[in-house]
Predict the structure.
Amino acid sequence: MDFSELKNKSVNDVRELLAQFSSQLRELRFKALSKSLKQTHKLNALRKDIAKIKTFINQK
């Protein structure tokens, strides 16, 4: 997700996206702990996306 994509959305939409990404991150962490997650790079990408969203919300 690019920062420019976030600029086109409202703060409420971004907060909903943050909640969705947080739940996805939780699910991926559980899969990683149970050794069923093969694509571990998704964890880092999702964490970075969450950080971008939080930065965007703080700037508004």
